[in-house]
């Protein structure tokens, strides 16, 4: 049985990911900052733990014994430029200490390339007000790009966005950046979990879109 630890398990995407991991029969550790606010996550045998993804010692202690770590955390209260690089550094250090070799990161579509090979972030239509947040994500990804080859990371992003009302197809396809695309968190979680048991992508960024009808 694969052992999976999810940081940010109380969030919109973290919950879908932890749920899909449990459905697949994985052993699941759900890490949140305050377990009292996420007591429901402990159902079905999920180990609910308190932890901060920017704390390398906490990452090392919590992640020991797992096969895959998933980073779905996002701190809206953090100053620009701080959270994602801090989390990436702590994960790199903590997972190395814990001997966990596989890291899956929930990323941002703005950093995917369009079919023309241009990052969505660099296209004329990209809203400038979202640029600082995208650069924060990019700084986190840069930490991973510079990491030793022993860390088998993968950044998985929606091709466009998550749709709160996007239908669940029970499948997905990989896609370049596509601003119009909306994938449900549940279908996105399928793509993420498919990269746990038999990983197909290594040290790259992939985009996920809904399965075509
Ligand atoms: N278009 C796109 O590409 C797109 C769209 C949406 C989201 N995303 C990305 O998807 C990821 C997940 O987003 P989401 O919508 O699921 O966010 P969310 O619902 O706000 O959940 C994020 C979770 O992270 C947790 N968290 C915050 N700081 C933490 C820390 N220091 N340590 C551990 N956990 C921490 C929060 O936990 P607490 O319960 O402790 O507050 C929260 O439950 C983000 O990276 C986001 O940027 C991408």
List key phrases describing it.
two-stranded parallel sheet, binds NADP nicotinamide-adenine-dinucleotide phosphate, 8-stranded mixed β-sheet, 213 residues, globular, alpha/beta, Rossmann fold, 5 helices
Explained architecture:
The chain is of the alpha/beta class and 213 residues long. It has a single domain (3-210), classed as Rossmann fold (3-Layer(aba) Sandwich). It is 30% helix and 21% strand. It has 5 helices and 10 strands, in the order E-H-E-E-H-E-H-E-H-E-E-E-E-H-E. It has helices spanning 12-23, 56-63, 83-98, 131-145, 185-197; strands at residues 3-7, 27-32, 47-50, 68-71, 102-106, 152-158, 161-162, 172-174, 182-183, 205-210. The strands form 2 sheets. The chain has an 8-stranded mixed beta sheet with strand order 3-2-1-4-5-6-10-8, with helices on one face. Strands 7-9 form a two-stranded parallel sheet. The chain is globular and about 45 Å long. The protein starts with a strand and ends with a strand. The relative contact order is 0.16. NADP nicotinamide-adenine-dinucleotide phosphate binds at residues 7-8, 10-14, 32-34, 37, 52-54, 72-75, 106, 108-109, 157-158, 161-162.
């Amino acid at each position: 049985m694969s052992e999976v630890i999810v940081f940010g398990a109380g969030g919109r995407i973290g919950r879908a990911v932890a749920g899909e991991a449990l459905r697949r029969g994985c052993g699941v550790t759900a890490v949140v900052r305050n377990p009292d606010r996420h007591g429901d996550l402990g159902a079905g045998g999920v180990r609910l733990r308190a932890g901060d993804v920017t704390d390398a010692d906490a990452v090392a202690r919590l992640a020991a014994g797992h096969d895959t770590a998933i980073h779905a955390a996002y701190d809206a209260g953090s100053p620009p430029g701080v959270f994602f690089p801090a989390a990436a550094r702590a994960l790199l250090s903590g997972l190395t200490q814990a001997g966990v070799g596989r890291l899956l990161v929930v990323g941002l579509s703005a950093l995917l390339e369009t079919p023309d090979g241009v990052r969505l972030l660099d296209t004329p239509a990209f809203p400038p007000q979202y640029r600082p947040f995208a650069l924060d994500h990019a700084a986190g990804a840069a930490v991973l790009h510079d990491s030793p080859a022993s860390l088998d990371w993968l950044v998985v992003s929606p091709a466009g966005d998550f749709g709160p009302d996007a239908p669940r197809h029970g499948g997905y396809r990989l896609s370049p950046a596509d601003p119009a695309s909306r994938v449900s968190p549940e279908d996105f979680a399928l793509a993420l979990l498919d990269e746990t048991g038999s990983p197909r992508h290594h040290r790259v960024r992939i985009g996920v879109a809904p399965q075509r009808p």
